[in-house]
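All the exercises in this workshop are built on plain-text protein records. The record below serves as our worked example for the rest of this section.
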Amino acid sequence: MSDSEDISIPFRLLAAAGSRAGAAPVSASTLPHPFWIAHRGMASVCPENTLEAYRATVAVGVDVVEPDCWLTRDGGLVCMHDDTVDRTTDGSGRTHDLTLAGAGVLRVDAGEWFAEAWPNTLRVPTFPEVLEELGVRAVLCPEAKNTGGGSAIIEHLTRYGVLDTVIVQSFMRAELDPVIAAGTDAMMLTATEHYDPDSLRKSGIRYLALSAALPPSLVAPGVAAGLNVVVWVVDRRVDAAPWLAAGVAGLFSNDPLYVSGRSPVLRSDPFAQRTYYYGHLASSIAGDRGIFGAPGDWGYSTIADDYRGALQGWGCPIDSADRYSLTLSLRIDDTATPDGYGSVFLGAADDRSFDDAGRYHPGLNGYHVLLRRSGVLEIHRVDQGIATPVASAQTALVEPGGTVRLGIDVTPARLAVTRTDRAPADSDSVTIDDSRYRGGYFHLGRRAAAVHFSDVSVSQPVITGTAHPESPTP
């Protein structure tokens, strides 16, 4: 995409969530409970720590925007997460060694490392640029990433007159002293249990942010000490649930609209947008969300002998989880062996990560539908993470680059999978009578195969006499 092209294109579906643009600014003291913080500016949905990401966060109404702030060696503040610029820009080197001028020539090559719809010419924003555009429109939660960052952040907040609409955070306790002295809300970040909530509160700190790797039982002592306890970072609804039950005041998320249940549920895939929609979450084993192609497909191009897959949160949860049809096209470009496959995991009651390792995983239940390049169509039932083959059928060999159409029909007592790209035949269908698992979450994936998916859609029966409004479509 050239510099002159409209980079708002990736926001077409984001805007479907409902814009809050133009709403009265919310102060840090009047945030809802719980409130949601867009980690790095919705880093699962937009290229992190860019003005484009921050704008999108505000446009769709997320409560708080988090810009990471590094103090440059010439006293400026630039927004970037890592301690090097290598991962997200076309440059290299340590972030704290930057000057403002040096940061200004860097380009965030998001089309390379994030998603194909994004240009490679986004800029690394400075904190004053963020304040100039969003300082009076949004609650910000800047993080002081290095020594001196806390004082520099307060200097800029004072200059722009927004000391009372910001929560300043840091892992470094000393960086919060100038924040407390200015009367601005301070948040202490911690990944350990070694802290004294009473001492933190008495020092003037109002917010304590706990790592999601810690137990939710730590919320209660913080609340008892008078702290607003926040958790970082949760990207799945199943992971957010125990923290919400424990009474957290806020949650950091890379995908806050999805995790909070506010993202629209689509009936057909958004792959033609060539960027990640809400709830597109990779398996926690591989951490690979796949790539987009043309026309309108998404998947994995390698044939490595490991599972790669992702939750298709754009279509989840399916409302009528015990009666629906899921249809999709699946192209197998190449395989490491004839047993390489493309697959659908469905019937899951929640959005926890799926992989086909066959290890005990409490709560991971559903059905794994596999189509191998050899043409074997299989259904495996997954009980607590352990897969058991329950039905199979031999269909025609899938030629390299060949596209197959699958139809999966779910009823309260039966699961039927049919290969519909050929003339109807009993051998092209496999059915099980099983009512064990019915849920509204599904995943697409592959093993030992380069597989791309397209034309994925969910259809549900219309209940006579009731309205069933359509969700936004891409």
Observations:
- Residues 150 and 175 are 5 Å apart (CA to CA).
- Residues 1-9, 15-25, 464-474 have pLDDT under 50 and may be disordered.
- The chain has two domains: 9-259, 271-459.
- The two ends are 20 Å apart (CA to CA).
